């Protein structure tokens, strides 16, 4: 099968099927073999691995995954791409294509069926508009995962690894760092895609922790507090948390919890570390 990482081959297949890019699915196909090789290397794909690919597109990265993994499950939302995938992946017997929305797929069932419940690796070139819900969905549903290696918008990758005090630090940074160790593998310029996006991208690898780095009594509650802290970034924590109806917290309760931690009652959420959020959640 022709290597779709080579631009001419991508153009041929798109013309053959008269394919039109769908803006609503945020479709940008990777056309750079060296970037594809780096993703496979960063994800450390071996013949023991079962890989879940989100958004295979025309099958560019899927071909590379099939060559290196034992089993690949590719979930594609756009049904116009299914006949193309049948064609571009026809030589591989170790791939299953599912035409569905990844946010609605029972990934735990896939892990059971394809990998006997053992942790899988996730690889994806994610559409920017849906990056956060997909990543959070994977972590919060406690799918057995070894790692997630994804291509995302550069600023989203930066946000995932930021610490307190930076303008990019937020709920996504804390969530990712609670579940995994983030590492930026490569920055990828717009000319590596077809069509060219308007922004730079980055490959980031998230290696799942065996145990979260902080102890928290109620994970869900902590993330509720984190979200409320960053929903109104400019507000103090006392105001932000007491204004969040779902938390049902009084100003006094938040103030007392902060003082107990030796923190100023006028502090904002962006100044707290993950450890401090866990402690605050436990105190509340």
Give structural notes.
- The protein is built from twelve helices and nine strands.
- It is α/β, with parallel strands linked by helices and 284 residues long.
- It folds into two domains: 7-208, Rossmann fold, CATH 3.40.50; 219-283, rRNA adenine dimethylase, C-terminal domain (Helicase, Ruva Protein, domain 3, Orthogonal Bundle), CATH 1.10.8.
- The strands form two sheets. The chain has a seven-stranded mixed sheet, sandwiched between helices. Strands 1-8 form a two-stranded antiparallel sheet.
- 39% of the residues lie in helices and 18% in strands.
Strand order of the largest sheet: 4-3-2-5-6-9-7
The H/E string reads HEHEHEHEHEHEHHEEEHHHH
Number of helices: 12
> Strand share of the residues?
15-25%
Summarize this structure briefly.
This protein is α/β, with parallel strands linked by helices. It has helices at residues 7-16, 33-42, 60-68, 82-88, 107-115, 131-140, 154-161, 171-179, 219-231, 237-242, 251-260, 274-283; strands at 29-30, 50-54, 71-76, 95-99, 120-125, 145-153, 180-188, 193-194, 201-208.
Write the layout of secondary structure elements.
Elements: H1 7-16, E1 29-30, H2 33-42, E2 50-54, H3 60-68, E3 71-76, H4 82-88, E4 95-99, H5 107-115, E5 120-125, H6 131-140, E6 145-153, H7 154-161, H8 171-179, E7 180-188, E8 193-194, E9 201-208, H9 219-231, H10 237-242, H11 251-260, H12 274-283
Parallel strand pairs: 2-3, 2-5, 3-4, 5-6
Antiparallel strand pairs: 1-8, 6-9, 7-9
Which key features would you list for this structure?
284 residues; alpha/beta; Rossmann fold; Helicase, Ruva Protein, domain 3; 2 domains; two-stranded antiparallel ribbon; 12 helices; 18% strand; elongated
């Amino acid at each position: 099968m022709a290597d779709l990482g080579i631009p001419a081959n991508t153009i041929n297949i798109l013309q053959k099927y008269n394919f039109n890019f769908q803006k609503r699915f945020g479709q940008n196909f990777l056309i750079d073999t060296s970037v594809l090789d780096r993703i496979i290397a960063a994800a450390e794909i071996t013949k023991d691995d079962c890989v879940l690919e989100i958004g295979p597109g025309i099958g560019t990265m899927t071909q590379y995954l099939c060559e290196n993994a034992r089993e690949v499950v590719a979930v594609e939302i756009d049904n116009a791409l299914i006949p193309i995938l049948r064609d571009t992946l026809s030589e591989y017997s170790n791939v299953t294509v599912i035409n569905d929305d990844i946010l609605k797929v029972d990934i735990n069932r896939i892990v059971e069926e394809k990998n006997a419940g053992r942790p899988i690796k996730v690889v994806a070139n994610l559409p920017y508009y849906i990056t956060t819900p997909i990543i959070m969905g994977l972590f919060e549903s406690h799918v057995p995962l070894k790692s997630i290696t994804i291509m995302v918008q550069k600023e989203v990758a930066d946000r995932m690894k930021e610490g307190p005090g930076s303008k990019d630090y937020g709920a996504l940074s804390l969530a990712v760092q609670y579940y995994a160790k983030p590492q930026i593998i490569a920055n990828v310029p717009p000319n590596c895609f077809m069509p060219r996006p308007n922004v730079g991208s980055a490959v980031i690898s998230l290696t799942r922790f065996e145990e979260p780095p902080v102890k928290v009594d109620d994970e869900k509650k902590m993330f509720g507090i984190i979200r409320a802290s960053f929903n109104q970034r400019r507000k103090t924590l006392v105001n932000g948390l007491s204004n969040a109806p779902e938390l049902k917290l009084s100003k006094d309760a938040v103030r007392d919890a902060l003082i107990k931690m030796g923190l100023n009652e006028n502090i904002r959420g962006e100044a707290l570390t993950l450890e401090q959020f866990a402690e605050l959640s436990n105190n509340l």
